[in-house]
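Let us practice reading a record.
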Amino acid sequence: MSSSRISTNKKATVACNNCSLSDLCLPRGLTKEELARLESAINKATKINKKDYLYRRDDQHQAIYAVKSGSIKTSLSTLDGEEQILGFYLPGDLVGFDAFANNKHSCDAQALEDTFVCELNMDSFHELCGSIASMRNGMMRQVGLEIGREHQLLLTLGQMRTEERLATFLTGIAERNQSRGFSSKEFYLPMPRHDLANYLGMAVETLSRMFSRLQEDGIISVNHRLIEILAPERLKGLGHHQCR
């Protein structure tokens, strides 16, 4: 990973066991001794400036990253510069599993805003997963969650109408926020609308109409990127498709 892509910041950061994200991140289920080993292996001072890359496609797999604050998008680009957004990663999410197959990243990971990540290099990752069963199980769970997100995205793009796609996405963000102890009814969307439209497989103009329609129906309130969910059950009902 090139040093031109990231910078380090030596400001004090909270310990893993005091972090509000601890149940969603690497330390799930670790003993006090195991947590101390993990903390000694993690670099908690990695900052990615807005629009800089955490890693690029075909970069060697160097680490697993936990988003501490900020947000990251993953994407693929064609030779003629067309971009496809693959996912958005928020505080508590882990990034970097895409390189497990052949030791190289299969996509780009770019900061949507100034972002801090905790970094666990791959040598330490393999050592800790080999000796700490609860961490190994936690990693399997995270990989499973990643696969589940991809399945949900395929369902969203393949089977849902445009308003259902947006409703499903907003409901998902609300649920992720709630699981992290944040507000599920009022939140800031870090991604610009053209990125969100790309991810949801619609034109930016269509996405704007969908936001306006949900607001006119009294389901949400929109103030630039600040979203307030006024009728969560109605919003959830719009994204009604479920796998059987």
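A brief commentary: The first strand starts at residue 7 and ends at 8.
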